[in-house]
Amino acid sequence: QTTEEIKARGSINIGMLVDFPPFGIINEQGNPDGYDADVAKLLAEDLGVTANIVPVTGPNRIPYLISNQVDVLVASLGITEERAKQVAFSQPYAGIEIFVVGDVNVGVDDAAGLSGKNVGVARASTQDTAITEIAPDDAKIQRFDDDAAAVQALISGQVPLIGASNTVIAQIQKVAPGRFEPKFSLRQQSQAIAARPGADEFMAYINDFLTRKKESGELNAIHEKWLDAPLPEFVAKTAK
Amino acid sequence: MIRPFGINEFLFILFAVQWTLALSVVAFTGGAVGGLLIALARVSKVAPLRYAALGFIRLFQGTPLLMQLFLVFFGLNIFGVGINPWLAAAIALTLHASVFLGEIWRGCIQAVPVGQSEASWALGLRYYDRMKSIVLPQAAKIAVAPTVGFLVQLIKGTSLASIIGFVEMTRAGQIINNATFDPFTVFGLVAALYFILCWPLSILARRMERRFAVATRR
Amino acid sequence: MGYEFNFAPVFANFDHLLAGTWMTIQLSFGAMLLGTVVAIVCAVGKTAGPAPLRWAVDTYVEIIRNTPFLIQIFFIFFALPAVGIRMTPNVAALVALTVNVGAYATEIIRAGIESIHRGQVEAGIALGLRRGQIFRYIIMKPALRTIYPALTSQFIYLMLTSSVVSVISATDLAAAGNDIQSRTFAAFEVYIVITAIYFLLSIGFSGLFALVQRRAFNYPLSR
Amino acid sequence: MPAVQMEGVDKWYDKFHALKNIDLEVARGEKIVICGPSGSGKSTLIRCINQLESVQKGRIFVDGIELTAGPKNVEQVRRDVGMVFQQFNLFPHMTVLENCTLAPVKVRGASKAEAETTARKYLERVHIPEQAEKYPAQLSGGQQQRVAIARALCMNPKIMLFDEPTSALDPEMVKEVLDTMIDLAEEGMTMLVVTHEMGFARQVADRVIFMDKGEIVETGNPKEFFANPRHERTRNFLGQISGH
Amino acid sequence: MPAVQMEGVDKWYDKFHALKNIDLEVARGEKIVICGPSGSGKSTLIRCINQLESVQKGRIFVDGIELTAGPKNVEQVRRDVGMVFQQFNLFPHMTVLENCTLAPVKVRGASKAEAETTARKYLERVHIPEQAEKYPAQLSGGQQQRVAIARALCMNPKIMLFDEPTSALDPEMVKEVLDTMIDLAEEGMTMLVVTHEMGFARQVADRVIFMDKGEIVETGNPKEFFANPRHERTRNFLGQISGH
Ligand SMILES: Nc1ncnc2c1ncn2[C@@H]1O[C@H](COP(=O)(O)OP(=O)(O)OP(=O)(O)O)[C@@H](O)[C@H]1O
Ligand SMILES: Nc1ncnc2c1ncn2[C@@H]1O[C@H](COP(=O)(O)OP(=O)(O)OP(=O)(O)O)[C@@H](O)[C@H]1O
Ligand SMILES: [Mg+2]
Ligand SMILES: [Mg+2]
């Protein structure tokens, strides 16, 4: 995969989530939208090609990429070591902080407190990886297909705790004010644009693109638009 | 970012019906062709053809449609056969529908009395004319009811195509649910839409079955 | 395309897959037995019950048969807690599968009951047997024999349908596959292996059904 | 006390008037043959005696018990009335022995051993003791019908009803079933038999009843009935039968 | 050259030896009636002549063409051999006329108009020209069987095979079909007829063949065959038929 090929083709296939607000959503007109969508469009514009956005899901986004269905993922993909074996990551373009969230009546304030408890997560998400890593052996991790299902399990009382990002927590607070609270932070998670391994020239281009957009403040503006906050510190700094 | 379930959300799900329908049409068309071939192979005089068809049926009736879709879509791409979701869905759903329709239709062909084939042989009719003019027209009458019945199964089955990126009704519901966190409205609506689509077909199938049962009892 | 198949991570987690397989077997088997019981009760209700019961059975059967299983399981897991019925994911999966197969099997078993010649029932009545006894001793076995092929293929279909229960975090074979896949990213290898396992399961179940048929329905039929 | 007594019985199937004001008394030990054209109500008549059909008017007594008075009596009476059908109606999933022991065990509460002893006794009497372990499908039509007779006898009935017991049989099997019925008649069983086997009627019937259009048109002892039918309709009917 | 010639033909259904060393020569224009008990192989024998059943041993020639030599010959022969079945086997979804024209058009390549003319001619000959536009289900059994005969004749066969053409008919319809067959015989058609209608055999058969257990037991002209059967088995069989 090279920049030249994409330019020659005149369009780029970009995989993004559409069920991960506010990063990826379907807007009222029924089109993909959100932070990721704006970044994707910016990237296409920078390449001088049209953006062809392909909706993907959490569990199948990597298969989409490595089976050539898309050229690149702007899909809120958290950078992890395991994933780095499968795909090539750019420098961070977004970041979230993920927490263990739970019922206000459940007393948990660290990983050890998860012992014997059921914890819901979205399968194959960053939360999944993080909680699997730190949870004691006797914690029971229940994996749902997406964040909405995990949140629904929490709200309907099927699980007392879930792993969720700060953006999801904001939504939980809106749906069920006062019933749930963040218990403790799991980690700050940087998200990156991903391409197939080996496409070094293309990846160099993407990194350069992000550096330019961070410096120009354009990326920050998009972030403000969707998350009502500037790019987090750990994302805003530019890599080489 | 979370928003209430409103008219736009309703319309988004409603419009997704077109993909459910489109997938169903593709699956049914492909399945009709494949099913006919499989049914003919199953009643063939050529033993290897019969066994091949049987093996094919065992394989595709013995594995989940979900896995078939996944393997066709991602698998073929891995082997460098570029394939778009439409083609992948068409292939997987066609295979799925072919084996089920094939078995249904085989039963219908075998329900045509042997005497009909024997009379055709005795008149010197060859395979093509025998099938086209004698056996299939009679089998078709029997086949209508169970075929419509299977169509209901197929329509519901297309919901699995969401795994390869189709935003049909079920997936549309999931997406809207992620934006509204109002699962009962969303999935209630989705269920109602499927019901509206499928129920008339179910009733039609049952009516025809009954009519046929009455017609053959005498 | 240079994708290199690597089955090592799949086999490294094989115990996990086996646990999922065992759960799929339990779910399928449990739903078959419970679903058959539900279906027999509903089929009897529909053929011999009072009008409101017949109506209720009809409604149940029609709703289940005309909506996708995915939606049904979602309701059972997420909506029932609102009315105080809370189940673990695996139990909810079992209930959803039972409710689903129960509706299909109701129609099948009803057809079986109706296929029994009226004279059989009359012979039972003439011998002084009561309604329940007639059903239990005279109708049931020949009816089940008639519809056994339809019923068992519905069961195989049920087993394959159970691959959807992972959406409510039940720990069946498909869920085990998804978990391994999300940890190792060996998506194709995982799917190939679990597809093969499903295939073996359906062959196994078919064999079992054939065995049961030979044992349970071994009486001869007149031509 | 008569074995069966019908007083002014009327029966409708929806609008169709199937039995019209039937009066009939059957003494104990009496053998009655009922004949008549198809659709005349013969089956309906005998099916009313064990309430396979309920009647809308009139009263029916069996062995002094009023059938038409309530469901409790019906249960009681059914145990005492054996019935043999045209189509045998054996239970295909049970062996001959199981066919014969089911009702005694489940209805009379007999032990399995007792019931089997009785069953074997009656199978002997209908001359097929060696078929006890077979399934109905493995027997000829004549053998099946004799099993059906034995099955009814196992309940020790006081009255036996037969609805065209030989008309579904191949000709060579009719005789063996009729012989069994003749044996039974000679032992003094009360019997009502719908049949067109006029040889049988001549040999065993105490009375022959001719029905047409839901009515009992004529009744008499077989001798005068055959030699000298009083009614036009009876004559026509007998003409057809013998020409057959 | 004989119309049909069978030399040392043996046929097995799996293990079951259905035809045993059959030798038979049928001259042109000859009419042969085949009879024998059920299961004796009569149907099997005539079904071999148009290869609805294939044989394992021996040779069969029809009009000089060796059937057993390959599939090409089979196709050729089937056109020249008409067959009428016990169950008529008319095509229920086609009118009488369509039933009669299908094969001439598809197999002989006749034009539709030609085929219809021929069909109407033969329907006339079997005395039902007015039924041409009806469907089989609208006809009586006897009419259906005559359509089946006309359908076969439309292919201009050199030989006609009949497998119990009247045994599925109500008695009052048997005669009309037999009359049609007698007409045909008088016109000189070569015919092999499996039937138990001994009156027909007496009237038209040149030879009567008696089969039992897969063998041709006896063959002779009808007169001596009925008056003077040589074999015990034949005598028994004829006794049963006439007693029937
Ligand atoms: N369940 C039913 N519903 C409506 N009509 C019925 C029913 N059973 C019998 N009939 C009608 O009642 C009349 C008497 O029937 P029944 O069976 O008693 O006649 P039958 O004398 O036994 O005749 P057959 O010799 O044909 O057995 C017939 O006209 C029949 O059509
Ligand atoms: N397809 C078959 N498979 C196995 N056995 C067969 C088959 N067809 C016929 N038979 C057996 O071959 C024997 C001869 O059959 P065939 O039909 O020729 O007898 P038939 O003389 O025509 O008798 P019928 O008078 O009953 O028609 C019978 O015993 C029959 O059971
Ligand atoms: Mg009757
Ligand atoms: Mg025959």
Low-confidence stretches of chain A: none
What proportion strand of chain A? 25-35%
What would you call the quaternary organization? Answer: heteropentamer
**Which structural class do you get from the secondary structure elements of chain A?**
alpha/beta
**Helix count of chain D?**
9
- Sheet with the most strands, sense and barrel status of chain A: 8 strands, mixed
Can you count the beta strands of chain D? 10
Q: Helix/strand/pairing class of chain D, anyone?
A: alpha/beta
Q: What global shape of chain A is seen?
A: elongated
What is the 3D form of chain D? globular
Mean pLDDT of chain A: 86
Estimated share of beta-strand residues of chain D:
15-25%
Mean pLDDT of chain D: 90
Strands of chain A, total number = 10
Roughly how many Å is the radius of gyration of chain A?
Answer: 18 Å
| Distance between the ends of chain D | 40 Å
End-to-end CA span of chain A: 21 Å
Keywords (chains D, E): ATP-binding, Nucleotide-binding, Transport
InterPro entries (chains D, E): AAA+_ATPase, ABC_ATPase_HisP-typ, ABC_transporter-like_ATP-bd, ABC_transporter-like_CS, MetN_ABC_transporter-like, P-loop_NTPase
Domain ABC transporter (chains D, E): 4-238
Family (chains D, E): Belongs to the ABC transporter superfamily.
Detailed description of the structure:
- Chain B: One of its GO terms (cellular component) is ATP-binding cassette (ABC) transporter complex.
- Chain B: Belongs to the binding-protein-dependent transport system permease family. HisMQ subfamily.
- Chain B: Keywords: Cell membrane, Membrane, Transmembrane, Transmembrane helix, Transport.
- The complex is a heteropentamer, with one copy of chain A (240 residues), one copy of chain B (218 residues), one copy of chain C (223 residues) and two copies of chain D (244 residues).
- Chain A is α/β, with parallel strands linked by helices and 240 residues long.
- Chain A is built from ten helices and ten strands.
- The radius of gyration of chain A is 18 Å and the shape is elongated.
- The two termini of chain A are 21 Å apart.
- By secondary structure, chain B is mainly alpha-helical.
- Chain B has one domain: MetI-like (MetI-like fold), CATH 1.10.3720.
- The termini of chain B are far apart.
- Chain C contains nine helices and no strands.
- In chain C, α2 packs antiparallel against α3, α7 packs antiparallel against α9 and α8 packs antiparallel against α9.
- The mean pLDDT of chain C is 90.
- Chain D has nine helices and ten strands.
- The mean pLDDT of chain D is 90.
- A six-stranded mixed β-sheet of chain D has the order 6-7-8-3-9-10, sandwiched between helices. A four-stranded antiparallel β-sheet of chain D has the order 2-1-4-5, with helices on one face.
- Chains in contact: A-B, A-C, B-C, B-E, C-D.
- Chains B and C meet through α2, α3 and α8 of B and α3, α4, α7 and α9 of C.
- The structure holds adenosine-5'-triphosphate (2 copies) and magnesium ion (MG) (2 copies).
- One adenosine-5'-triphosphate binds next to β2 and α1 of chain D.
